[in-house]
Amino acid sequence: MSRTLAITASLNTDEGLWIYRGSQFIKRLFEGDLTHTILKHHPGVPNMWLTGSGMLANCWLNNFFSGFLGVDLSPDIGTCLNLEQFPINLYIIPRLVQAVVTSACMVCIYLFIRRLLGQAIAFCTIIILLLEPFFLAYQRFITTDALQADFAILAVLLFLLYLQKDGKRKFVLASGIFLGLATAAKITALFLLPAIAIIIGLIELGVWQEAFPSRGWKQQLRGFQLWLATILVTFILIFPAMWVSPGYVLDRIRDGVLQESDRGFLFFLGQLTHSPGILFYPLVLVYRLSPILQVGLVATSLVLLIPKLRCRQKNTPAIAAIALIAVWVILILSASDNKIDRYINLCLPMLAILAAAGWLEIMAGVTVWLNKLSLSREKIREWGCLMIFALQLVLLFPYHPHYLTYYNPLFGGAVAAQNIFMIGQGEGLEQAAQWLNQSLNVKEIKVASWYSRYFSSYFHGQVLPIDKRIPSGIQPWTRANRVVFYKNQLQRQLPEPKMLAYFAKQQPLYTVRLQNIDYAWVYPGPLALAEDVKRIQFPLSLSFGEQVRLLGYDLNKTKISTNDELIVTFYWQFLAPPPADVSIKISLRDRQNHISNFSSTPLIDGYVFPENITAGTTIRDVHKLKISPTTSPQHYQLQVEGFSFNKGQVIGEVEVVK
């Protein structure tokens, strides 16, 4: 249920990429182009099988029930799978397919934990995991993180079952299959290999003998080799590109991993950085985990570190082994320069198991304390699990369906987190799109947006990209009627501070606010709409030569203080392309006809090429005039000069006050 409620709400920024890759994956399978079924270094193969199959189902449904999806798709399957943009309705079936698979994984996780650690820990783990906000958020997304995490924990549990006294070879084979699937989802699942090798070494050195008996180095090595072989065979079998071009695939994965490790453009502790430091993942655990999970982890840590408590825990060896793997993964992640909070999904199920064990220890302590009430241990566990469920549900509910907006409220929530982490992975942009969809003639409106692929799934008009890097030539956003900015874009000052500063001095038309912080802003773009012209604060009709007419202007203030900034927004109607060296000069003239303040800046701060402006275009052009501290308080005439018309024209009046 939690994976399918509000199924069209809040896409993740990577989902558009994976539904595209999945569609291309299936299309290339049909075409026999197996070599190019690798589309990314992750490599995300299980995701592409699932999302591609979901998209194929969309195409078939459209052929059998035209109009059922509310999307105009080609009846030709190859053309249908070759889409570049995916309306939100096309995500429903791929997300449902993912929900079925991840839900089945949750059932298997419960069954394997019950066999390894007992029913109480298994039940408590599932309660925590199903309602853990950050984990649930990614379980809903058709990205690589969910399947990697689910398959990896299944592999770990099965391998620990194999290491037990009566462990059978089928467990190591099943573990290898699941880790092969996890690796095919995301190559970083291989981080588990050294941790498993360390556990085997500790067992053979005599540690945890009561749960994991020594089998001798040769037998352990044979089991480990069988496991590695199963991982490799599974990886090859599920990945068509490996059938024909294994060398090409491995080169793509290596090159991609190296390139991603130098990602850059990150934000941490209020600063731009290319490499968040060693504090990153500890702070992620503080802010991204729920208090329930954190309390359980603290309790388990005390049990493992205090000998007296450790002796009471019958599952200490298995719990210690899981803790070792989780700590190892976090250490490896911390060693990389490329740090993103979602990478901890790989060890979140392990942390949930540890937290469940901790809560059972807390319940055991409560049992001793309440012994005089004659309550049975089983009864206290039932009430304890019910309490955990209720607390997790109460904590989760305010974040539905934007679970990624969760940051631990005990540490200031999102308001505090925005000064530490990059905020936002797409959530909130759909609300900006829905607001814009209410506009008249929305299909004719051009909107430039951060995460444009995501935005286009919701917006009914035309979408232009705002990319991390400034493209050469004309900037796409200069041709937009509206411009949408996003929280992490502003945190990282992308694509460049100058462009953001141009809009920062303006008032947004609409702001998306989630969990008490602003996530997205909609600004009027350089190309004015008819409704913008109708709302001009001071309408005019002044000619500036034969090429340009000033339709009017807006002021942020008509009464302004010294040392303040006057923001003037002009609406220029072009009758012909203006000269390339256009500069707009604005000034204040006092009663004695003296200029006291002056500024000269290019059209749209130099981002447009005036000679490319077509006749009939109305440009919304924003300029800033700094009022000098020495300016005398009085009424001033606002004068503008520009284009080939060299004489300044008075367009209004501004009052300067102290």
Automatic annotation (TrEMBL):
Pfam families: PMT_2. It is a multi-pass membrane protein. InterPro entries: LipidA_mod_glycosyltrf_83, RgtA/B/C-like. It is found in: Cell membrane. GO terms for biological process: lipopolysaccharide biosynthetic process. GO terms for cellular component: plasma membrane. Keywords: Cell membrane, Glycosyltransferase, Membrane, Transferase, Transmembrane, Transmembrane helix. It comes from Fischerella thermalis CCMEE 5268. Residues 95-202 form the Glycosyltransferase RgtA/B/C/D-like domain. One of its GO terms (molecular function) is pentosyltransferase activity. This is Glycosyltransferase RgtA/B/C/D-like domain-containing protein. The chain crosses the membrane at residues 92-113, 120-141, 147-164, 171-203, 223-244, 265-283, 289-306, 318-336, 348-371, 383-400.
